[in-house]
Amino acid sequence: MSDFAASAVPLAGGYGGQTYAVSAGGEDAVLKLYVKQPERAAVDAALLQLVRGLLPVPKVLEAKREGSPEDPPYLLTERLPGVNLQVYLETAGESERRTVGEQLGELLVRLGGMPFLTFGEFRGGELAIEPFGLGDLEQYVEGLDLGLDPGQLERFGAVIAEAEDVLADGVDRVCLVHSDFNPKNLLVDPATARITGLIDWEFSHAGSPYTDLGNLFRFCADPVLAGAVLSVIRGSGPGLGEPLVDLGRAADLWALLDLASRSTEHEIAAAAHDLVSRMADTSSLAGGRVDLDVVH
């Protein structure tokens, strides 16, 4: 009997594709099939090549960049070491959370320092940029089914106004945005608290340097981790505006609203809907969230 054995185990995450941990001949890798968005395979392959050595991303072992939903493109990448950061943080002590936060700040600084000329979605292996064409934030909200009552919708106008006022005082540079920058898409070595991977780039685009910070802080209630993130960004990041937390929340509002409009799809979307409802109820961008910035 041959000693060769192969296996494929589905992995969580990657809403736009199907991701598997695969093993064959004693080698481990990750296979992502681009079923819903076949055109995204070429983009992700190019992005992983672009940032490799600058960010902790896996090496592409093999790629099929074109295909169809019936014969989907795929990326086969190395499997990075480490455990899911979201799970790790559930039991991590204060020192470990501070160490992780400092590294998250460093990653955000690197992302914010990768410039582009215009906002938009990436297209093809050359990473051409196609403008979003979404209109202004008020028009965007009107086009979504958020499940808010008339009173909440009226009060949400104050949230939009606050977001626009906050962003008017920030910088308007364009940079590489991961757009799903949060613990579920990060890996960490539990023995050293060192971040080993930033994965799932399917929503990445050219956008605001505050967007990934807002995504990271969307559901964060840990001032220790957040304080470490902010300290690093303020100490070494390319000149950004203040207040950083509010700027992040304002830049994240587009993605948060889109997620909230799909509240029945999964628990993260349901949590987004709850947050948007609280924002409407309080007429505020904070929506009753914990103050993450003890030093403004």
List the helices and strands and how they pair.
Layout: E1 6-10, E2 18-24, E3 27-33, H1 40-51, E4 60-64, E5 74-78, E6 83-84, H2 85-89, H3 94-112, E7 115-116, E8 120-123, E9 128-130, H4 137-142, H5 150-168, E10 174-177, E11 186-189, E12 194-198, E13 205-207, H6 211-217, H7 223-236, H8 244-260, H9 267-282
Detailed description of the structure:
The protein is α+β, with helices and mostly antiparallel strands and 296 residues long. It is built from 9 helices and 13 strands. It starts with 5 loop residues before the first strand and ends in a 14-residue tail after the last helix.
Task: Provide the structure class.
Answer: alpha+beta
What is the helix content? 25-40%
Oligomer: single chain
**SS element count, helices:** 9
How far apart lie the N and C ends? Answer: 66 Å
**Averaged pLDDT, please?**
92
SSE series:
EEEHEEEHHEEEHHEEEEHHHH
> Per DSSP, what share of the residues sits in E-state strands of 2 or more residues?
15-25%
- Main sheet overview: 5 strands, antiparallel
Reading side by side through the largest sheet, how are the strands ordered? Answer: 1-2-3-5-4
Uncertain regions spanning at least 5 consecutive residues: 1-5
* Overall spatial form: globular
Number of strands: 13
Rg is: 20 Å
Characteristics:
single chain; 296 residues; 5-stranded antiparallel β-sheet; disordered N terminus
Describe what is shown at a glance.
The protein is built from nine helices and 13 strands.
